[in-house]
Amino acid sequence: MKITELLTLETIKLGIESTAKKEVVNELVNVLDQAGKLNDKDKYEKAVLAREEQSTTGIGDGIAIPHAKTDAVKAPAIAFGRSTAGVDYESFDGQPSHLFFMIAASEGANNTHLEALSRLSSLLMKDVVRNKLMAASSPEEVIAVFNEFDVDEETVQTSVEKNMVLAVTACPTGIAHTYMAADSLKEKAKELGIPFKVETNGSGGAKNVLTQEEIDQAAAIIIAADKQVEMERFKGKCIIEVPVADGIRKPKELLEKAVKQDGTIYNGSGEKKKDSSDHKGRSGFYKHLMNGVSNMLPFVVGGGILIAISFMFGIHSADPKDETYNRFAEALNTIGGGNAFGLMIPVLAGFIAMSIADRPGLAPGMVGGFMAAQGGAGFLGGLIAGFLAGYVVVLLKKLFSKLPDALEGIKPVLLYPLFGIFITGIIMFFVINKPCSLFNEYLTNLLNNLGTGNLVLLGIILGGMMSVDMGGPINKAAFTFGIAMIDAGNYAPHAAVMAGGMVPPLSMAIATTLFRNKFTKKEREAGITCYIMGASFITEGAIPFAASDPARVIPSAVVGSAVAGALTMLFGIGLRAPHGGIFVIPLVDGNPLLYILAILIGSVVTALLVGLLKKRVIE
């Protein structure tokens, strides 16, 4: 199928009038709709904008290719628009876009259609095509350009060569970026004289699939993808993983790295082994800790909310001996506390260990975490168990690496779990559990006996920490401490933590509403989103504001978050669910209205400070 069977005279508009990204999308959607190509104009436009949220389709060199594959499309089509002045389309190269190709692929689009759409992406990589499209004076001339260059190229069978470079490209929709990255890499490899082959994982399935013989002979494999690709076939090979956009914009850099084997060795099952050229590596206390916390969080959130709901029937309603006993409340408390919370520490430890030692670390880590939970070592013991188990397994891998190859198969199913669980368990039982248990008792007693002044000071510290780096290590340290206190039965610290974390995005939303002349148009638009992100306890929503003006925004946010944390402690608020924002406020221990008041006061304080400190923006 020719491109001109999809790009027709009625889907071409040479005079794009819009000056903003969303307006361009709307204008091109109207072109398709008027040409009778859409079933549901609004649904298609939403699908295109949803794709833009994943990553911009402004690929640079003056080109943007908004696209979507949806049942809102009646018939596959391409709309072409041109803006002489150019539009800020948030392109990769930061330059205005002039040529816009909106690809509409129907849900049932066949491979013939998809191949034509991918061929369009390939043609646009050529300077001569782009120049002729900019010079075209009529829709007929645009069609003539594609008739001239849209010819079927002869398929050349790639011969297998030693140390050739391979690549896999893939984007979420598999229509445009997949093929543009492939063509960009292919053209640059040809220019540099590098033996090369690329596999495309597009909407029509994988094409030009890499053979095992090619993989065995390859120097390295470039994975330019924004979605998961089949990786196990690359075990033992040097891989370079980047977003698909880098395949389009940085082909020379990627190919040169591949030739030098400047990447990581893939060991299978998601594990990459650091080599001499991998300066970033995989290690790091923070990364391992966050792997454990992120996998533990669903258990804590779900369990915490169920426990909190059970208390709505009465604080002792889960106790069969109490007069307020309720069977349903007992079920909620058992599911949330006895089961979900019971798995919290084993999951934390297991995934920390797995981050360090890959799959062989999971079992020893979970057993160590379970021992910590049962032995009173709590959250701290779970942290220690996770790191202990992970590094025990790393040591075992080194020790067992000298065993005969015939025993390779029994390592993951026998040797690692047997010795990993044994060594981790012995150390937890004799060395770790008792000291951690005593420390937890001391810390719990200390917090329970703190006076109002000291509690307020703790609230100031925890609330302020949530705004220092907004999702970074300091923020996560406060968050992790709050979860540890929930595990210890003290719910006040995490109430201060969540209040402090909600302030930055909420305050930016309020500031952009009250002090509109202090923010750019884009910042004001982002401010609207911050109302939702702040209410949902997503502190990271304020990062764009902090990045653009850190000297004014960050100190202001820290002050407001500290105020919110202090007021939360002063009002005696407790929080059993570590996440959820506005959705869990009705379930807090204490007065929910006072908790909302604390958050609002902190947010207003920050908003006023930002409004006073920021300079007026001239647009």
Explained architecture:
This protein is an alpha/beta fold. It has 4 domains: 3-149, 3-Layer(aba) Sandwich (Mannitol-specific EII, Chain A), CATH 3.40.930.10; 165-273, 3-Layer(aba) Sandwich (Rossmann fold); 285-437, no CATH class; 452-613, no CATH class. Helix content is 57%, strand content 11%. The chain is built from 21 helices and 13 strands. The chain has helices at residues 21-34, 41-54, 111-123, 127-135, 139-149, 177-192, 212-217, 244-249, 251-260, 285-311, 327-357, 362-374, 378-400, 411-448, 452-468, 473-487, 492-514, 521-535, 543-548, 550-570, 592-613, and strands at residues 12-13, 58-60, 63-64, 67-70, 77-87, 97-106, 165-170, 196-202, 205-207, 220-225, 238-242, 264-268, 271-273. The protein has a 7-stranded mixed sheet with strand order 9-8-7-10-11-12-13. Strands 1, 2, 3, 4, 5 and 6 form a 6-stranded mixed sheet that branches. α13 (378-400) runs antiparallel to α14. It is globular and about 85 Å long. The protein starts with 11 loop residues before the first strand and ends in a 6-residue tail after the last helix. The model is unreliable at 153-158 and 273-283 (pLDDT under 50).
The outline comes out as globular
How many beta strands in the DSSP annotation? 13
C-alpha Rg (nearest Å): 29 Å
Instruction: Count structural domains.
Output: 4
Strand order of the largest sheet: 9-8-7-10-11-12-13
Global structural class: alpha/beta
- In what range is the share of β-strand residues? 5-15%
Oligomer: single chain
Keywords: Cell membrane, Membrane, Phosphoprotein, Phosphotransferase system, Sugar transport, Transferase, Transmembrane, Transmembrane helix, Transport
Membrane topology: Multi-pass membrane protein
Main location: membrane
Protein name: PTS system, fructose-specific IIA component
